[in-house]
Design goal:
This protein is mainly β and 218 residues long. The chain has strands at residues 2-3, 6-12, 23-31, 40-42, 45-59, 65-69, 72-78, 82-88, 94-102, 114-118, 120-121, 129-135, 148-154, 158-163, 168-176, 178-181, 184-187, 191-195, 199-204, 209-216. The chain folds into 2 domains: 2-118, Jelly Rolls (Sandwich), CATH 2.60.120; 120-216, Jelly Rolls (Sandwich), CATH 2.60.120.10. Strands 1, 2, 3, 4, 5, 6, 7, 8, 9 and 10 form a 10-stranded antiparallel beta sheet that branches. A 6-stranded antiparallel beta sheet has the order 11-12-13-20-15-18, with no helix packed on it. A hairpin with a 7-residue loop joins strand 11 and strand 12 (129-135).
């Protein structure tokens, strides 16, 4: 993907993998320099943008901008039509991940159309592993669809069993390095989808980083 200085990669949807309801889309973007805003519409969706590096501007439907720097999170909840855009800050390189979830019918939860916050560090369970809770009950940013999202960084190689809730649908996305999941090596830009499993065997290389995201299975 190449558009106005922004390049990126999409885990899904694509030729080999469609949406994974309620996950509609997972994309990562990298930009050099600034950009002009181009508001677009969301309806019946939640959209999470998580800034991995640099700084971006989040423009809302009222033409108001909020600066989001490294580690910042925004969640848009579009029960009706809402317009917004993410634009790299002028003279700033930026990298961010966007996760779009879709729903039909009524959804309980916070009413605010926009939420902003930062991740919450989890107490380290082992040397060389940092887990940051990005979206979920223990964070300032909460999803009406029950999204739980965390950022795992490995400063040294690590092997562990990750406990999961089998009643939830999981997406694991590798940001940097390589991660072996259930014996399959996943390189940066790749990921896995899982459902109905209570654990995953994960072995990560030094410098690896991945996102784990889950929602209640439909």
């Amino acid at each position: 993907m190449e558009l106005e200085g922004i390049r990126g990669r999409v885990l899904f949807p694509g030729p080999q993998q469609g949406p994974w309801p309620p996950f509609e889309r997972l994309a990562e973007s990298v930009a050099t320099g600034g950009g002009a805003k181009d508001l677009h519409t969301h309806s019946g969706e939640e959209v999470v943008n998580y800034v991995l590096a640099g700084a971006v501007l989040h423009w809302d439907s009222e033409d108001h901008a909020v600066e989001l720097n490294e580690g910042a999170i925004t969640l848009l909840r579009a029960t009706g039509e809402i317009r917004h855009d993410i634009v790299p800050k002028l003279r700033s390189d930026a990298r961010w991940v966007s996760v779009t979830l879709h729903w039909t019918g009524a959804v309980a939860g916070p009413e605010a159309p926009y939420q902003f916050g930062r991740g919450v560090a989890e107490t380290s369970r082992e040397p060389g592993l940092r887990v940051l809770r990005v979206v979920g009950p223990s964070t300032p940013v909460r999803s009406a669809l029950g999204l739980d999202m965390s950022d795992w960084t490995f400063s040294q190689s690590s092997s562990r069993e990750v406990a999961l809730d089998p009643a939830r649908r999981l997406v694991a996305y590798v940001l940097d390095g390589t991660v072996e999941i259930e014996g399959r090596t996943i390189a940066s830009g790749g990921g896995i989808l899982a459902e109905g499993v209570s654990s995953l065997r994960v072995a990560a290389s030094t410098g690896a980083r991945m996102l784990l995201m889950s929602v209640p299975a439909p």
